[in-house]
# Entry
Amino acid sequence: MNIIKKISQTKLVVLVTHEEELADFYADRVIKLEDGQIVEDYLNSSSTDLDMKHDTDIYLKDMKQLTDLEDELANVKIFSDEDIKPNFNIRLIVKNKTLYLDIDTKDYKKIKLVNGDSEVKILNRHFKKVKREDINESTFNLEEVINDELTIDKRSVITIKDSIKLTSTRLKSTSRIGILFYIAFIGVAALIAIAVGMLSNVYYLDSSEFLTGAKETVVIEYDQYLYGAMMEHEAEDSINYVNLISGSNNLSVRLPLVYQASEKQSSLQSNPAISDYLKAEDMVKGRIVEDYDEIVIDLLVAENFLERTTVQNLGITTLDDLMNVDIIVTLQGINYTYEYKLDIVGISDTENPVYYVKEETMYMIETEIAIYEVFEDLITITEGEVPDETDLIMTFDDPLVTIPLASRTYIELETLFHVSALYETSEDTIPEIMIPLALLKEIYYDNTYDVSGTSIYIHSNDIKETIKYFDELDITAVSLYEVESKEYLLIRLSESIGTIIFAFVVLGAMSISYYFIIRSSLISRIYEVSVYRALGVTKGDIRKIFVTEVIIVTSITSLIGYLVTTFVLLRIQLIAEDFFQFIHITTYSLLGGILIIYLINIFSGLIPVSNLLRKTPAEILSKYDF
# Structure
């Protein structure tokens, strides 16, 4: 107080106190408040000394020393401000580094231990009043501590380190009920792991389950365009090609001949894509397509095929085994069919449920008609010319057929063809009929897209640019993957209402339980919070204490429960995914679940703290609830 008085000689000092003695002694002007109103305002002219003694201060020289016992083991002195009644027996006992005090009397029941943490101070001197002349004895010089160049740096009173220490202290003194609460956190976190796994499974999109083409596909609505006008779109930079084959094919797989095996053929259903746009880095086995009689199968299709029991029973269980089987394409003829064998030369991983072949091979698989360009080097034209119109076709020169070339016709693909050329070969067998690729594509287009509103697939290298291109032409265009994934997700959501409700109930239950646990903990700490606030600790610092506590408690309870349960679920997923799947654990779902747990716990924990901090320190002290 002398320092404050010294400062007031050159600066205005406003001191708020409940001690009238201090005001009468030190103040130059006294303003008294009562119930928020000024009741007195006067200049202080008091000249009395300050006779103010704290009840917690004990001045030994103002008391009687009744006993002074000293020997080799101890020195005991008894001081008192009154006469002690007879039979005052005291025993000091030391056991296990602990000091026990036994007072055998009924007259003195209160015992206080004085140490460095107690408010009581024992002073070995007499109490002395503060006199007026003592006020100026302070040597404090305010000017020496003033530095105008220093900036005010607002720092937290309670650091993160302090918060961690406080939390550590509370955890060490956790009661049995508190331990049960922590065990409950672990259990709820386990339920959250299950809920997150189930939600992740709902939103897990397996493109093999819904995608009907490559992800790079843009779908447009056909509106009675001529074939030539449709093919002109391929000139756009963002368009690779117009894929007229929008459906899937059943590829015939020739199985190895095994004794007692009833199955000799199997089918592999997949959508076609031109191999020219497959990259070497997309391959996980083998290589890309280089010739007409080669095919690459995507991993999604391959794994689906290998899951079949019939295939596994024949020893086809790996990708290498699959690459040793043949794909058989049946090509139509006049008197017989021709088997065209495709070698599986690679397995790609493009996450597309497709197979990759040359464009010529793709149309042979779809139409079962041989393409002239595929067999061009194996045949010799004996009469006529290669077709250049869509109603013309080439046929094998059968010496037994004597009909003149100009009179020969053939019906295929619901089209009447005139034969424009005959050919022969040195090979043992060759397809009986052939059409050039360009003509077959146009015939296929005219036969397939004759109704307005039919969808046409566009293979794009930039989906956004392709959609923008068609929008500018007033042609409806959408991403195949985006449309089909949304439709699939809606179906999944409608089938998983129970799962979603369960997940949100679990998350809500954890939020509520954590709220009440923190609230219960806070009720016992209201006095602690009020003292912090009265001492000027900011609301932010108090929130920091509780947030730190929530994070630490979550890390040693909820996080452990969540990670252990997730690990168990992942093992179940790996074992049972071939039979059924109700959970799906990914890196994103794992991290998402951890984030959810911490956010729920922090948010739920801060609500009761924030409610309490809305009150003033006085209100917090007067109400031991909130």
Summary: The radius of gyration is 46 Å. The first helix runs from residue 2 to 7. Residues 249 and 563 are 44 Å apart (CA to CA).
